[in-house]
Amino acid sequence: MSNQKENKRLASLDVLRGITVAGMILVNNEAGDTFTPLAHSKWNGMTPCDLVFPFFLYIMGISTFLSLRKFGFKWSPAVARKIAKRTILIFLIGLGINWLSNVVGGDWGLGNLRIMAVLQRIALCYCAVSLLALFVNHKYSLHIAIGLLAIYTVILLLGNGYATDASNIALCIDKAILGGNHLYTHSPIDPEGLLGTIPAIAHTLIGFWCGRAMMQAESTSEKVLRFLLAGAVLVFAGYLLSYGLPLNKSIWSPSFTLMTTGLASLLQGILMYTIDIKNHRNWTTPFLVFGVNPLFLYVLSEVMAIVCWNVGLYSMLNNGIHAIVTNNQWASLCFALVIVTVCGLIGWWLYKRKIFIKI
After folding, report:
1. Are 1 and 358 in contact (CB under 8 A)?
2. Rounded CA gap, 226 and 233, in Å?
3. 10 Å Cβ neighbour count for 139?
4. What is the dihedral sign for C-alpha 307, 309, 315, 320?
5. Which pTM value belongs to this model?
6. C-alpha to C-alpha distance for 330 and 316, rounded to whole angstroms
7. Percent helix, strand and coil across the chain, each rounded to 5?
8. CA distances from 206 to 126, 145, 165 (A)
9. Tens-digit pLDDT string for the chain (359 aa)
10. What are phi and psi of 2, to 5 degrees?
C-alpha cells in the first residue's frame, strides 16, 4: 500500500482502466434478467459486456511496458521478485475467491475447487508478457503476438475448437491437466481455461506493443494518432478474420483478440485526445477512483458479493429494488449500479487520501 501520490500517471489510461473495472463490477453483479448488451454472448458473437475483461488485459499490457520501463527492461533480483510476487499474489487471490465461493456453499474441501478464473488469467498474462519484455527485443513483440494467434488458430481448426461438446480441444486439455471437477461448469468450456490463455497472452502483448508505440511518439497528438491508427487496423483485421473464425469470448478466438484490442486502442486514443489534449477532465473523477485502485476494488466486489449473498443482504437489497422497480431488467441494472456505487464510494475514500493499494 502507498499513501504517496503517484507521479506522472497517464490520466487517460487511468480513466480507461476505471471505466473497464467499473464495467467488470457492473456486469458481474446483475441479478436476474439483464439487458442483452449487459450479458455475455452465450457462444459466438460479441456484446458490450464481452469487452470489459479484454480491455483490462490490453491496459495491463500498456501498464506493464510503463512499469518495467522504470527498470530499463533489465533483469535483476529486484525485478524478478516484483514479477514473481505480483504473479503469485494475483493468482492466489483468485484461487481464494473461488474457494470462498465454495465455502459459503458448504464445501470446505478442495475437490471441487475451480483452478482458473479472471484473476488467474490476469496473473499468467502479466507474468508471460513481463518475462518477454525482459528477455526479447521489443521490436518483435507484435510478431510474437501474431505468431501466438497463428499457432492458436491452427489448434482451434485441428482440435474442433468451436465445438460446444466434449470434443472441444480446450475442454479436453483442461480436463486432462486440471481435472473435470476443477473447471467452470456453466458454459461449454471454462472461459478462462488453459488453452485460451495463449491468445490472452497475445492480447496483452498487443497492449504492450501499443504502449511502446505510444512512448516512442514525440507529442501527445502523435500518441493519439498512433492509438487510432493501431485501433483501426486491429478492428479491420478482426472483422475480416471473423468470417472464418467467429468472434467468441469463451474460447478467446483470434478474431475476438484483434477486434477487442482494436476497440480498446480506439477508445484510448479518444480519451487521450479528450483528456490529455483538450483537458476535459471534469467528468473523469468517478472513473479515476476505479482506475487507480483497480484490482483492489474488483477483488473487494467479488468478496463482497460472495459474503453478502450468503448472509442475505443482497437478497434484501434485490427484493427492495424489485418492490420499487417492477421491470426485471431495469431492477437488475439498478441492483448492479448500487454495488458499483458502494465500491466507488470506498474507492473515492482511498482516492481522496491518495492511497493506492497495489495488487
Report:
1. yes
2. 11
3. 9
4. positive
5. 0.94
6. 17
7. 70, 0, 30
8. 12, 7, 31
9. 444 343 356 899 999 999 999 999 999 988 778 888 888 898 999 999 999 999 999 999 999 999 999 999 999 999 999 999 999 999 999 999 999 988 887 888 888 999 999 999 999 999 999 999 999 999 999 999 999 999 999 999 999 999 999 999 999 999 999 998 999 887 889 999 999 999 999 999 999 999 999 999 999 999 999 999 999 999 999 999 999 999 999 999 999 999 999 999 999 999 999 999 999 999 999 999 999 999 999 999 999 988 888 878 888 888 899 889 888 899 989 999 999 999 999 999 999 999 999 88
10. -135, 135
- For cell 482458473, name the residue: 116
- Determine the straight-line distance between the first and last CA of the chain, rounded to whole angstroms: 9
Set of cell numbers at residue 2: 502507498
**And the C-alpha cell for 122?**
490476469
Amino acid at 300: L
Rounded to whole angstroms, the Cα distance separating 8 from 130 reads 21
Nearest alpha carbon to residue 199 among 129, 113, 257, 259:
257
Q: Rounded to a whole number, what is the largest CA-CA distance in the chain?
A: 59
C-alpha cell at 250: 469463451
